[in-house]
Amino acid sequence: MTGSTAPPRARLYGLILLMTLLWAMNFVIGKVALREFPALLAGSMRTALAGVLVAPLYWWDSRRRSLPRWSRADLPRLLFLGLVGVALNQLFFLIGLGRTSVAHSAFLLAITPVLVLLLSAAFGHERISARKLAGMGVCIAGVLVLQVTGGEAGGVTVAGDLLTLLAAVFFSLFAVVGKGAATRHGPLTVSAFAYIGGGLMLAPVLVWESRRFAFAAVSAAAWASMVYMAVFPSLVCYLIYLYALKHLSPSRLSAFSYLQPLLASLLAIAVLAEPLTGSVLTGGALVLAGVFVAERG
């Protein structure tokens, strides 16, 4: 663990499990929002709303107590985290989710720990063993098996899966680069810069997509879904993630993501009546097995 004072393990892992559940629900709630909002509009609105919510929280906390200081030299890294961890990650997540099933999206994002391992190795933070390589190979096999379901019920497309994989790559960059930033500046500072910066980056997209959109025709369920995505998986989960990142390695923390596809798939079956096909079961099992092996390599 890192950090001067480690929190109680029960509290730390309890928060991580809550984060995992909130993120799993986001797949289903995102599908509900995308029934009425275009993906680009939904992604930019979600980020802007989260930025508006985190700004006063950051201001209040900075006045209440002394937050870690940042300087102009820190701005490139903090804004980079906003670009990859918020703007690009969330845009590609929603665009991909609109073109694939919840199960595919969740299982593909579950390979994030493997991508974190690769990036950590590239930055010289971790070493890739033969067992980790074997686990990565199993993950790749699982991703290939998932493609067998292209065109089946649930709206699965290869393009949607590839866009989802890009979202995983961007979040992996956020996890690796954000490790040092969260330790140095604190979770709230990193979240504030990420969402305010990400919101500003996506402001042109929001303005462009809003020009001819009929906001008055949007249902209460779609608005509630948008608020949920902005508050819980965006703001609350990122704060928990960055808090936990101060005390756990990026790869160990990302390992909890293998619970998300299981929860998300069950929720999709219950709420959206999505089918659970044999190839999803096989491909998903291979992905999770590969992550398990790679994490313990």
Could you give a quick summary of the protein structure above?
The chain is built from 12 helices and no strands. The protein is an all-alpha fold.
Derived from helix and strand composition plus strand pairing, the structural class reads mainly alpha
| Count of spatially separate domains | 1
Distance between the termini: 19 Å
The percentage of residues in β strands lies in under 5%
Overall form: globular
The oligomeric status of these chains comes to single chain
What is the average of the pLDDT values? 86
Query: What is the number of E strands?
Result: 0
Radius of gyration: 19 Å
Low-confidence stretches: none
Structure description:
This protein has 297 residues and is an all-alpha fold. It has one domain (9-295). The protein has helices spanning 9-34, 39-64, 75-97, 102-109, 112-122, 130-146, 158-185, 187-210, 220-245, 250-254, 259-272, 278-295. The longest helix has 28 residues, at 158-185. The radius of gyration is 19 Å and the shape is globular.
